[in-house]
Amino acid sequence: MSELYGNSQLTGKEKFFQDIIVSKTDLEGKITYANRVFMDIAGIADEKACLGQPHNMIRHPDMPRAVFYLLWQTLKSDKEIFAYVINRALNGDHYWVLAHVTPSHDMNHNIIGYHSNRRVPNRMVVNEKIIPLYKDLLSIEKSCSSPKAGMEKSFQTVVDLLADAKLGYNEFIFSLGV
After folding, report:
1. Is the N or the C terminus of the chain less surrounded, counting Cβ atoms within 10 Å?
2. Is there a contact between 131 and 124 (Cβ–Cβ < 8 Å)?
């Protein structure tokens, strides 16, 4: 765990923001850029303190592993992804975002990192659709004998949901109403 992250407990307090949160990472998910909005909402005093840190330092335990697995599989396939994400500030507060994450390329079109823009999410969608879905996915993940088995079963639940809806993941997110 990152030294920057510390041992903060969850507070249950939600933070809100208005501007676009921007960050960039390298191929390993280590932060190479963070805008002031990112640092303020995450509770990071100095950009230099977060550079080189793993982006998952703001991972909230209520975020299903299956969604991150889908995110990374999509990005490694050189595609963009939209996802609702609950993040954890360094002090234990949390905040919801609608993330748009894209691969970054060099001049030869090789993936060299990832760029994430996060905006204020639709609260009705978060409260009525995403929170219940994520609770179900987390319940599945916790019911299995290992984290890997839980993530795989939870991911299959997402795959089945998308197949039933006859939608890709991004289409599903937009069908909820952003």
Report:
1. N
2. no
Determine how many CB atoms are found less than 10 A away from the CB of residue 42. 23
Q: Label residue 60 exposed, middle or buried (CB < 10 Å: 0-12, 13-18, 19+).
A: middle
CB of 90 within 8 A of CB of 6? Answer: yes
Domains of the chain: 21-175 (3.30.450.20)
Report the percentage of the chain scoring pLDDT > 90.
Answer: 88
Residue 1: CB partners within 8 Å, gap ≥ 6? 57
Q: Which two tokens stand for residue 76?
A: 């490694």
Residue 5: CB atoms within 10 A of its CB come to 16
| Tens digits of residue pLDDT in 32-76 | 999 999 999 999 988 788 999 989 888 999 999 999 999 999 999
pTM: 0.91
Give the DSSP H or E segment for 116.
strand 111-119
